[in-house]
Amino acid sequence: MHRILLVDDDTALADRLRLGLERAGYQVVWAPDGAAALALLAEQEYDLVLLDVLLPGAGGFEVCARLRQARRSVPVLMLTALAGVDDRVRGLDAGADDYLGKPFDFAELLARVRALLRRGLVVRARVIEIADLRVDTAARLVTRGGRAVRLTPREYELLEALASNPGRTVTREEILETVWRDDRSLSDTISVHVSSLRRKVDGAAAVKLIETVHGSGYVLRPPAEGVR
User: Fold this and answer.
1) What distances in angstroms separate CA 96 from CA 5, 54, 91, 119, 120, one per listed residue?
2) Contact at 8 Å (CB) between 131 and 228?
3) Fewer C-beta within 10 Å: the chain N or C terminus?
């Protein structure tokens, strides 16, 4: 389940948005101001931040800028009554991924949330390291224990989706949307590709990273502390 951080000092609006998002299947954590949002972001990972601009204390622009300065790549959707071009430009320059002016239709908000979450599974070019697994997303190269792992393009995309969300179950529906690109005709081949990926990535390794979550999807789980 995707975890969303909702940052808005309008408690009535926040309650309506939280209820709607939870009904749509998301886990929502609410922060009433920028300081609370930054504290929550320091404690745990979120899949998306819905960020109001006009907040008491640290405003939305400052919160977003501080996230990017800390090299946090979590998608940010700004929600604000400041709908002028200059304000939108300022928000995007601060590092926001999208900008939605108030008032807005909830259906449009959900569409933008889905789009940003899909985009969030494709990590911005960087190197992901989990135990002795290394995924270079710019070069699309994978090594395990220093040895190259040769993957097909689809196996690589599947691994990147899992490695981008260590410890979190990536559902079959998410894989269909982000890796299979909604090609439902391939849905029955997900388990086949995962089996092949597991054989190539985990086969010779003492510590197995890829697990099946029965009835849900798959997870790339970092080993317990001290285990290598």
Assistant:
1) 14, 15, 6, 13, 13
2) yes
3) C
pLDDT tens for each residue of 164-177: 888 889 898 888 87
Please name the residues in contact with 158: beta carbons below 8 A apart, sequence gap of 6 or more. Answer: 175, 179, 193, 194, 197
In terms of Cα–Cα distance, which of 128, 117, 115, 88 is closest to 5?
Answer: 117
Tokens linked to 144 = 């395990």
Alpha-carbon gap, residue 142 to 46, rounded angstroms: 25
What phi and psi, each to the nearest 5 degrees, are found at residue 32? -85, -10
Measure the CA–CA gap between 12 and 158, rounded to whole angstroms.
40
| Long-range CB pairs of 41-47, under 8 A, 24+ apart, other chains included | 41/5, 41/67, 41/72, 41/74, 44/3, 45/3, 45/74, 46/3, 46/4, 46/5, 46/74, 47/2, 47/3, 47/4, 47/74, 47/75, 47/117, 47/120
Give pTM, 2 decimals. Answer: 0.55
Query: Is 146 in a helix, a strand, or coil?
Result: coil
Dump pLDDT digits (tens) for 98-109. 888 888 899 999
The verdict on whether omega for the bond into residue 103 sits within 30 degrees of 0, i.e. cis, is: yes
Sign of CA dihedral 174, 166, 137, 78: positive
In angstroms, the CA 14 to CA 5 distance is 11
Amino acid 159 reads L
The SS3 of residue 216 is coil
From the list 174, 177, 169, the residue with the least C-alpha distance to 220 is 169
Beta strands in 21-122 (DSSP E): 27-31, 48-52, 76-80, 98-101
